[in-house]
Write a structure and sequence with these properties.
The chain starts with a helix and ends with a helix. It is flat, with a radius of gyration of 22 Å. Helix content is 75%, strand content 0%. The protein is mainly α.
Length: 255
Amino acid sequence: DLAAQVALSHLRLRNDPTFAREVLAGAAAMGESRAQVIARAELLVRDSPDQWRAAVAMLDAMPPAGGPDYLLHYSRAMIRFAARQEFAAALADIDRAVSIRPRAWQAHRLRLNLLIGMQRWQEARAEADLLLASPWIDYDWRIWSDAAVLAAILENPEQGIEEMTRFFERNPFAAREWNWMAQTLESTARSHEARDAGNNRDRILRNEARYNHRLARWHETRGNREQARQLLRQLIADDPDNRLAREDLARVDGR
């Protein structure tokens, strides 16, 4: 039904489980459709990854679709991937989903994630190439980053550097990717460029730390002590010498 499809769209593409739950709650009075079961199963594993078996069982208990069931295969694969469980079974499901809808780019993206997780580098690289040439790249430009890492793993660091540069055209504020770039440039004897990449990484990390510290204090002033505590603990884990964060954490903890 339309409501459940909207919920799935917000859950998968917009990463908005709150809105997805609201839509499903409003649709419950109309009876439970297959799409609603799928959405509830995906919400379950998002909230509690250890409940992945229960989520898969919800899908398996649905009546047969009466034909090729792309949604079942895709969702079952995504649930296993989200829980980091049974990648081989998840890959079998996503292969089936892609055979049903060969141009379902979101399924190809999940297939790429699974192949990377299984360290099947050559197959992952072929999947990345397919996605780079697809319309999906305009939506999910992190594929450039994955492709770059795969290129380096497959001993083509220059191609990886070029592809990571394409990623930075879309997101120049990713510290992890700048760290990868610095290391890869250094490995190819491009030391000056490696230093520049390292400087970009360090600047981004400093800015992120400042932002997260301000955010922690904002949460504290509004009584959101647990959110403040989590941010401050992460700041200290990243920089054990962060005296201000330690002082703020002591205050939040009432010490």
